[in-house]
Amino acid sequence: QVQLVDSGGGLVQPGGSLRLSCAASGSIFSVSTMGWYRQAPGKQRELVASITSGGSTNYADSVKGRFTISRDNAKNTVYLQMNSLKPEDTAVYYCNADLRTSLWNKIGSYWGQGTQVTVSS
Length: 121
Fold this sequence. Notes:
four-stranded antiparallel β-sheet; 11 strands
């Protein structure tokens, strides 16, 4: 019953910016860590950035100083502000959330459908 919908991808020129959004909905008791992953053709899926419920963040070295992750706990939404985009940032970006559907359930991991980001001239 839990659904994550990610959006905001598109085609941009090098040096441009995009903001990705992901909203979790459904039967949710609490959300712990939320994050963004990306996967380019022929590459493994990799962690881009994550943020805990308390606001602690973690970034891949390749995006530090350019990307910013944030969240709105009241809306169960996570964002990824991407600035100074490079062609190597081109990938499908996936939202991820670790959450509980009730007090008695264990934490499960949920994924969005993915949104395409293309950086090209």
